[in-house]
């Protein structure tokens, strides 16, 4: 059974439903890019961690993490800090 544009988008007019459909396509494309960038970040972070561990250091570098948290907070506010913490967890696991 097929759904109507209104059911898919929550809009009450065809114009609004069309706009939402187009904008959702852009969001899906952006999310694909964001996911790709996160995966790229994870790979680069793994190279750094591996080099540090192989040299006898620790996986985690808290001073660097503080810089990153501050950067995301300055750009995006408090939720930016949460986003940075999630990114760091994806990149180095839980500490
Ligand atoms: O910049 C580093 O030294 C890294 O190891 C990368 C990274 C990160 O993913 O941003 C990961 C772990 C460290 O605790 C700090 C930062």
Poorly predicted runs are: none
Order of helices and strands: HHHH
Could you give the distance between the termini? 48 Å
What helical percentage do the residues reach?
Answer: over 70%
Shape estimate: elongated
Hetero compounds: prephenic acid
Structural class: mainly alpha
Number of helices: 4
Largest sheet: none
Q: What radius of gyration results from the CA coordinates?
A: 20 Å
Percentage of residues in strands: under 5%
Give a count of the beta strands, DSSP E runs of length 2 or more. Answer: 0
- Could you report the average pLDDT, rounded to the nearest whole number? 97
Explain this structure to me?
This protein is an all-alpha fold. It has a domain at 60-95. Helices cover 80% and strands 0% of the residues. The chain contains 4 helices and no strands. The protein binds prephenic acid. The site of prephenic acid (PRE) has 11 residues, from helix 2, helix 3 and helix 4. Residues 45, 48-49, 60-61, 64-65, 68, 88, 91-92 line the site of prephenic acid. Pfam families: CM_2.
Short description:
80% of the residues lie in helices and 0% in strands.
Write the layout of secondary structure elements.
Layout: H1 5-9, H2 14-54, H3 62-76, H4 78-92
Helix pairs in contact: 2-4, 3-4
The chain binds prephenic acid (PRE).
């Amino acid at each position: 059974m097929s759904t109507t544009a209104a059911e898919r988008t929550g809009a009450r007019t065809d114009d609004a439903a069309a706009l939402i459909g187009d904008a959702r396509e852009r969001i899906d494309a952006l999310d694909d890019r964001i996911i790709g960038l996160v995966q790229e970040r994870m790979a680069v972070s793994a190279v750094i961690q591996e080099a540090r561990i192989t040299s006898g250091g620790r996986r985690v570098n808290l001073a660097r993490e503080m810089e990153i948290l501050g950067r995301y907070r300055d750009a995006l506010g408090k939720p930016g800090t949460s986003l940075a913490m999630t990114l760091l967890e994806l990149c180095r696991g839980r500490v």
